[in-house]
């Protein structure tokens, strides 16, 4: 077998020896030496971390033809290599969104590399004292900083590529802001979970290989979910599995052998944590990001599409709210409280924006059938647009804070500023339309809504400036035209400001739909302005009254709670037992199988079982009975009864199995520590006095205490004369003899483990 070598071996040879020619003989040597190798590639890579060959190595190891001992790839590295190849060939990578995510992944890797180079250069600058070297390093640091800023600008451009997520059927809709998915590195749970199953739970790890494999596959698939409900369900399933895994394998949410690496969605900076809370928070962020992408992908030219967008944005809002409340102090910027508050404000404003678009579509159909409701409909739309503008105003205030502004793309702030001005102009346009559509037939119906249209408290100076009372509809056509003209002038002025802001933004200039919407709105405003005929020369100087921001959409805070989607996948590690018992909060001992045989004179096995919920435990044990002599204790978990698994059986069924047996009972138990058993079975732990506590038997401890009391009485007996006392030499010899005899009596050695028993001796006997 001349070519008994994997394809990865050829790639390693090419990387390690780019100037040498790979021949069949070289491949044969590599294959033969790989078979006889005993060192794993992971260990070799760690040994050559700072060498030249180590820097040239790939993910599966470094191979060189000049080396006498070529390391073979271990199972973890081969698994990681195949997973990487599989992710590159994923069908979703071929879509526009997949290619965008692939560019994001490449930028994240480049940013990570630049950060490492900058950290190394900074360390060299701090360590050296040579002036020339410090100048060279300082120059290199400036280049690295410039390169890093350029990469972050490219990442910001990816975060503003909203056209990729937009639905093709609503090309003329207003662009919406979406969140990009966080990128992650592959993590293998196999070895850490197998070690914990064997060492901590004392179970056969081979029984859970399939469950661990499913968990690894599930995490791999969550890196590129589909942009639909199936993708959300996939992420929710993985999140639910993490909740089960956290209780079983993570002590205080941390595992010392598992590292989770995620890249920041806005800055691309990697963060590595051992806490599973960081993993769960990142998954929640991706769920919210996926909801925003689903919302933008809806066809908002239809009413049902706007409703679906509102629902998806609401789900994203609930998910991020849950993330902010449950996972604090995140190491990455995108999940910090200030950043989440800003993103929540943006999503909250977009919820009302989609609802406003839905109201426009509904009014287009209703106004054609009934023209008497035109003023009321326009006034409701004016209040709705004013509310959207107010929401974007709060977004702009939140995003301008010093803790958020440096990390968010500048295009976001520009678009939010444009939308704030646009919906303010749209509110004034709808007010003008409502004013012009008032007639004698609908004047009484309009008066109720017109009274609450303007904010009278904020417009005291302009309330009666142009002879119009703002608390009731205009009485004459001249007053109607004057009021409409004032609002239309404000509309055109505000739209001109929006056009200037768009021209100054590099990214917004590319959005033809945004410019088309502005042009269409300007044309509508000019057409309405031509209908207004007034002779007032000071009409352009009048100030328009502000419109009250009120929305008919009421978001109930009680229903704004996040709930994961129901998945068909149950707990992968259900075979271990109920998670309430088999978790890291409890301590377990090796599993034992007890074969209990009744004597002819004994009718019971000497133990009782209890358990309101699974699993069933041993309640009381007769120390003189069969079970007590076999080693059964209170609190032990019953795993099998006569070979039948009873982990998920109720107490009644287990009792029936025990009663149905004959004289012989084979029972498999898993003993728990004393504190776990006491907490479950309501057993009070024995409280011992510090003076009498000893790991020895109770009889030996009591004899020591009695001997201590006798010596105390002897030394403290009053009335003894000097003649009745022993000399000091005789006392020392007596104490030496009595101590030796006392230790021999109870088989206690000076350096034995029962040192606490020696501490209970009198001071002169130690």
Automatic annotation (TrEMBL):
REM-1 domain span: 90-164
Residues in the signal sequence: none
Database matches in Pfam families: BRO1, HR1, PDZ_6
GO BP annotations listed: negative regulation of stress fiber assembly; signal transduction
Positions with biased composition (Polar residues): 714-732
Keywords: Coiled coil
Region named Disordered: 714-733
Domain BRO1: 175-579
Entry-linked InterPro entries: BRO1_dom, BRO1_sf, HR1_rho-bd, HR1_rpt_sf, PDZ, PDZ_6, PDZ_sf, RHPN1_2
Domain PDZ: 593-673
Top-level taxon in the UniProt lineage: Eukaryota
Family in the record: Belongs to the RHPN family.
Protein name: Rhophilin-2-A
Organism: Trichinella pseudospiralis
Lineage: Eukaryota, Metazoa, Ecdysozoa, Nematoda, Enoplea
